[in-house]
Model the fold of this input.
Amino acid sequence: MPYTVVICGGGLTGVELALELPSRLRKLFGEQALPRIIVVDSGKRIGAAFSEELGNIIATASQCQSVEWRSECRVTHIDSHGVELSDGSNIACFTSVITAGVNASPLAGQINAKRDAQGRLFVNDMLCVEGESSVYAAGDIAHAHCDDSGHTALMSCQHAIPMGKFAGYNAVASLLHISPLPYRQPDYVTCVDLGEWGAVYTETWQQRVCMTRQEAKQLKQTITHELIAPPQDRTQAFSLADPLAQFVEMTQE
Ligand SMILES: Cc1cc2nc3c(=O)[nH]c(=O)nc-3n(C[C@H](O)[C@H](O)[C@H](O)COP(=O)(O)OP(=O)(O)OC[C@H]3O[C@@H](n4cnc5c(N)ncnc54)[C@H](O)[C@@H]3O)c2cc1C
Done:
């Protein structure tokens, strides 16, 4: 029980946390610690928010590290003794972590414009807030179309960073009376850390698995340490600022 952790929500944050914990707890408390990690998620299968192919990889990595899943279940109550689930069962634990999703900053509510279920402001292709064209919104606070097939930007660095570049460019373009650039980002990838098992990397919105284990882990580390790391100085910031420069390179067409 001291090393039992319940993760409430099996999305990307829940998966990465759950799969990191077994080795982290063993390192901290020794091999005798026998950590028990349980992910509670309302989806029908492990990784229900993702493609079946990606979900299967998450299931394999979970099994290898003895991470348990309670699917089709919701957490209904948490206290210092444990959690209560929607099927009436209880899990005794001293530690539970809620990873049940993110919402846009409440600052969005100060703008008199339409917002989506996550509180994000709807923006047009130039990233101007719909109905409030003097305000630009980019990143987690913006509900933006990223291609012509109906895909919407996710609350991720992958979308936030290019959106920031487009919004900055377009704000300056409006002051200089030059043409703005419509935000477009058709390529989509997912890279999920899976603890000691490695990682998984997928391409396209269908999340086709392209890389797994240590190869994908190396890529994940390059992404977090280099690709999404803030620029070191002004020169580097300007060199990275071009909205039309490719941000994510797909390995397959
Ligand atoms: C645990 C976790 C793991 C993640 N892992 C990944 C990943 O692997 N890959 C990926 O692509 N994305 C990942 N993300 C998502 C990613 O971090 C966000 O999508 C991204 O940071 C959004 O950028 P942003 O600039 O819109 O918002 P933020 O990065 O949240 O920046 C907003 C900034 O605005 C400031 N701020 C807020 N309110 C005000 C105010 N009123 N006035 C002034 N400043 C204000 C905040 O202090 C903050 O500095 C992860 C997120 C979480 C929580």
Q: What stands out?
A: The pocket of flavin-adenine dinucleotide is lined by residues 13, 105, 107, 139-140, 155-158, 160 (CB under 6 Å). The mean pLDDT is 95. Helices lie at 12-29, 52-64, 157-176, 213-227, 234-239. The longest helix spans residues 157-176.
